[in-house]
Amino acid sequence: MSELFTVGADWQRLPSNAASAKRLGALAINLPLAIAATVGTGLLAEWGWPMWLVAAAGVAWTIWRVVRAGRWTRSFAYLEREQDLLITAGLWNKQFSAVPYGRMLSVEVQSGPIARLWGLASVEIVTASMASNATIPAVTAETAAGLRDRLIAAGEAQALPL
């Protein structure tokens, strides 16, 4: 089954600090939400057992997201080929995408505050079809810059004539 989501070549993986950045992002988002939900439930339920249930669910969900970040990072890979970019990802729902360079409209590089803290950036490929857009998350800034330049060059070289 794994051969369905790979092509026998050297896939590029995300750097090891991508998992740490993803874990920090999960904590930064989930903990405030869990606290707000707990306080809100406490105010509505007069600080009774529903509040503790919501607190336990919030903590469990946050722990799940933090633990899962490492597996998610290890499941992601991409491969630059001559005609297209291949991307595979997913823990439960595996995905395999091929993005032809000739269909690319733009390449965007983004880096939020947590990603910048770890020296990471994401590369997003926008294509003529929304269904084939792709993102390579959490690569090093140097890798993102090189990938951006190679994708732009490949897209220009293989662009369909107007």
What do these coordinates show?
- The chain has 4 helices and 7 strands; from the N terminus they run βααββββαββα.
- The protein has helices at residues 17-44, 49-75, 113-117, 141-157; strands spanning 12-13, 77-80, 84-89, 95-100, 104-110, 120-127, 134-140.
- Strand 3 (84-89) and strand 4 form a beta hairpin.
- The protein is elongated, with a radius of gyration of 20 Å.
- The protein starts with 11 loop residues before the first strand and ends in a 5-residue tail after the last helix.
Report the portion of residues in β strands: 15-25%
Whole-number mean pLDDT: 90
Number of helices: 4
The helicity comes to: 40-55%
Looking at this protein, list some descriptive labels.
single chain; 4-stranded antiparallel β-sheet; 3-stranded antiparallel β-sheet; alpha+beta; 162 residues; elongated; 25% strand
Gist?
With about 160 residues, the protein is α+β, with helices and mostly antiparallel strands.
Please specify the SSE layout and strand pairing.
Elements: E1 12-13, H1 17-44, H2 49-75, E2 77-80, E3 84-89, E4 95-100, E5 104-110, H3 113-117, E6 120-127, E7 134-140, H4 141-157
Antiparallel strand pairs: 1-2, 2-3, 3-4, 5-6, 6-7
